[in-house]
Amino acid sequence: MKRTIFISIFFAAFVLPFSVACGGDETEPQQQEQPDTPESPDEPDTPSSGNGKVLVAYFSRANHVPDGTDAVSGATNKTRNTQTVAMELSRLTGGDLFEIIPARDYPVSHTECSEIALQEYEADARPALTTHVDNMEDYDIIYIGFPIWRYCEPMAIRTFLEEYDFTGKTIRPFCTSMAVGIEDAQANIARLCPESSVADGLRISYNIPNNLEELLSEWIGIE
Ligand SMILES: Cc1cc2nc3c(=O)[nH]c(=O)nc-3n(C[C@H](O)[C@H](O)[C@H](O)COP(=O)(O)O)c2cc1C
Description:
Layout: H1 2-21, E1 53-58, H2 71-76, H3 81-93, E2 96-99, H4 110-122, E3 139-147, H5 155-163, E4 170-177, H6 183-192, E5 197-198, E6 202-205, H7 212-221
Parallel strand pairs: 1-2, 1-3, 3-4, 4-5, 4-6
Helix pairs in contact: 3-7
């Protein structure tokens, strides 16, 4: 009995006034504060740098054409595909975005670039990189994106993979390409990072599909 009285007093004195003050009137539904969301897939969230866990690292030929490149030929050369996918992936996962930037430039000309890619592949080269992840230990899942170059990953990706300790981490490779799948590159990555778990990768066409968000969301959901 004493307990019932106490609960009644407590409710009347504290809970009731508080709920009224907070707009608990059922006739006027409360306006829910909406979380900030990007207005369109073209405007990806800039991932915050402090959320740890997920890193989206990518190499794309986007910004690595030599200075003075003819604007017209540059414009007709299809680049930034992997960057486009990486940015969308970063937006969807909330992961930190990191660009793998080689020290050298790669020619805009497909033929010339292809020649260099072949030379680097045959030499099993490790092109130097100018960007580095300072806190790789903070990440558990690392998405690694790249364009397919001559049927596999560009050698800069191998430089990146050998720079860090991926022990116990999950690597999720993704690529863009004209036609070639990710399987060979994925096998190479698994060989280079035997202490990590390399999940099934995803290949996206260089003609970035309109349903990119859907494709990525589906892939992200797969363990
Ligand atoms: C040097 C070089 C080699 C390529 N080799 C292949 C290949 O073997 N198979 C393929 O399907 N696409 C190949 N491509 C096409 C790229 O994978 C494709 O255009 C990719 O989306 C480019 O990505 P990026 O814009 O992020 O650099 C090659 C492109 C370049 C520049």
